[in-house]
Amino acid sequence: MNIGSKIKEIRLQRGLTQEELASRCELTKGYISQLENDIASPSIATLIDMLNILGVSAQAFFTEDTKQKIVFSRNDFFESENGDGTTIWLIPNSQKNQMEPILLSLPPEGESAIRPPFEGEEFGYVLEGKISIEAGEFSYKAKKGDAFYISGEKEHKIINKGKGIAKIIWVTTPSNF
Predict the structure, then answer these.
(1) What is the reported pTM?
(2) Is 16's pLDDT higher than 80?
(3) Which residue in 25, 63, 65, 96 has the most C-beta neighbors within 10 A?
């Protein structure tokens, strides 16, 4: 973030000249010019005074206006190991979101890592293959086109029961993969 250019932008929005802002802040016009051109950096106290005069809170000043990304491509994905298979993280930095989707691929007879109990829920959709969801003492079968929805209260894992690769879209909430 360029503090100086942001100060200038707000100053101009408020219809103030550098001289007017300098006078209100008890600073020189030259110092305001240096700040706005990122030649000088204000102390925290000076910055807070300037923001008060400009009518902007520190939180609002430092909040970046970023456009939320909606569509993610392969270039955004991240791959890691998951038990005998691989996980592709479909949404970068999804741990900051309410849900966390992954694409799990398991080789024949491969198993995912064991998921320890957590307070939340998981949804999955089998894209390819036949799997078994092992949750505690229970085992649930699912095949291509089937979906599953389980509580995170029990330790669980997924096992590929087919002869080919199994691919599963797996979503947890809250995010905790």
Answers:
(1) 0.62
(2) yes
(3) 25
